[in-house]
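Task 17 of the worksheet. Students: predict the tertiary structure of the chain below and write it out as structure tokens. Keep your answer in the requested format; marks are given for formatting as well as content.
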Amino acid sequence: MSIRTLLLLIAGLPALIVGAAVALGISIPVPVLGRDYVVRWELMPTGGQVELPEIAGPEDRTRPLIVIDAGHGGRDPGAVGEDEDGRVFLEKEITLAIAMALREELLERGGIRVALTRDGDDTLVLANRPEIARQLEADLFLSIHADSGGEIETVSGASIYTLSNEASSEAAARFAARENDADRLNGISVEGQSDTVSSILVELSQAQTQEDATEFARLIDREGRGKITLHPQSRRSAALAVLRSPDVPSVLFESGFVTNSDDRARLTTEAGRQAFASALADAIQVYFARRSDTSDE
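Model answer:
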């Protein structure tokens, strides 16, 4: 596409969105003569070179693709829990095990392509996680985490987070602040990021992406009932950096609390992981089935 054509296509866009798009490298639907065209710029700067993972599943590229992100990893252990026998449980290990179980469940069911942001104990910069989904042109991004209740051992249950500039509760705000600060706390230096521009883009140019993410979160909540233990306030929202992909519907699944004994039993056993995988796979299949029905209309 020529520079002249690009300028003609984006002429009707507000300068703020265009400037931010150029800076971050997103794709934006542009209305021209009653039709929507997608303009793509170079990728936004991340924490170094993004290494793309392999995609498993059907070779048919028209099949939907989900990128599953196991939170934390490498030098970043995430939340830490300990049982009465002194055994230590790390969030990074729990999230990877659930991600792997979900991957296998989806591949066994068939029809959906799957990629993992990490399949080992790798340190992965926060900004690169959603960027992997963007570069793979994924249809859905799911980041799996666990939490810590600190000294409060009674708090338990899974929660589903979507992106919002304002947190839905004080607990959601604390969770987001801790997750967003993970890189700095673990000694990972990241240059060239602009949270302000990212927030503007998400707010102004990707309403449909957020609607799709909200629908997916609603499906996880629905399909999880009776299969996994959900927190009484299971639907939450916060300004989570890992969900700030402007063109890939993104949800964070906080699977439970490593500081709660009942949650630990669910998070660290094969039966518990399979329950998470089954509920999440059900939600993913329903989501993509609805997208397929819409596209066929």
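Marker's comment: The beta strands are 27-32, 35-40, 65-70, 80-82, 88-90, 113-116, 140-147, 158-163, 230-238, 250-257. Residues 1-46, 185-190 have pLDDT under 50 and may be disordered.
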